Amino acid sequence: MGTETEPFRTVPAEVRPYLAELVRRTHAVCGPRLTGVVAVGSLALGDYRHGRSDVDVTVLVAGPPPAATLRELADALDHRRLPCPAAGLELVVYPADFARVPSGEAGYLLDLNTGAHLPGRAAFDPAGGPSFWYVIDRSVAHQDGIALYGPPAPELIAAPGPADLYAAVRASVREHGDGEGHLADNRVLNGCRSVVHCRTGRWLAKRAAAGQVAATEAEFRPLIEAAVRSFERPRAAALPLPGPQVRSFLARVRALVDESAAAAGA
Questions:
Q1: At 46, phi and psi to the nearest 5?
Q2: Is the Cβ–Cβ distance between 202 and 195 less than 8 Å?
Q3: DSSP 150
Q4: Per-domain residue ranges of the chain
Q5: Taking each helix axis from N to C terminus, what angle separates 221-231 and 206-216, rounded to the nearest 10 degrees?
Q6: Longest distance between any two alpha carbons in the chain, whole Å
Q7: Interatomic CA distance for residues 241 and 231, integer angstroms
Q8: Of the candidates 246, 237, 200, 244, which has an alpha carbon nearest to the alpha carbon of residue 117?
Q9: N or C, fewer C-beta in 10 Å, the chain?
Q10: Which CATH topology does 6-156 take?
């Protein structure tokens, strides 16, 4: 089916067999429509932590394929049929033609969440939902995505334009500022990653971004360091962080993002 062994050596050993089987099943369902499978998120940024991180995957298909094919794919990759060794699988399927063009839209054909620590979800219509998750993921994929099947990630997935990306980062910071459904450490570290991206134009692993922000934001250094310590633990053992400090830090993040956006004219 054209899958090379080399890309799988660049992902953690704990998830290699799972990803190989995921690619095999995706190819079996999609057939010649399948144009690419890309590892994104913490796998792409070199910050995957077993027992804490999700496996994030982007799939590109020519088509779009029939709805029945997408439902078959969701069933084939469901945790009950293909147990995910990570905290969960977050997989997004895009039309290949859509992904090759910069966009601020969600644009997916299938958004699948499944796993021991994720609420199950299989969505087939992005209308009415937030788009920022997908815009940021495509930006990470263009920068550092690991092609598990098909051409290199930058050939498959375009980088969003600056205005769309700043809008997505702002929406992400607002989402984590509200906090509902997110671990406190993840809220802080995503804020750090947003700040570093706005300053440098690069996505960094969460812990690397935390180090940079802690060095320049002395007021919040103890909070950021506590978030890193918590992130190094399994999800179930995450450390509590003081809510008012987390909210104050994310307000600071919003201000820094707005400053960078204004300087960039976005």
A1: 75, 30
A2: no
A3: S
A4: 6-156, 162-264
A5: 170
A6: 54
A7: 11
A8: 237
A9: N
A10: Beta Polymerase; domain 2 (3.30.460)
Confidence bin at 5 (pLDDT 50/70/90)? low
- Residue whose tokens read 């999800």: 235
Are the C-beta atoms of residues 73 and 99 closer than 8 Å to each other?
Answer: no
What does the pLDDT look like over 214-242, one tens digit per residue?
999 999 999 999 999 999 998 889 999 99
For residue range 169-180, list pLDDT tens digits in order: 999 999 888 776
Q: Is 139 in contact with 203 (CB distance < 8 Å)?
A: yes
184-200 vs 221-231: helix crossing angle, rounded to 10: 110
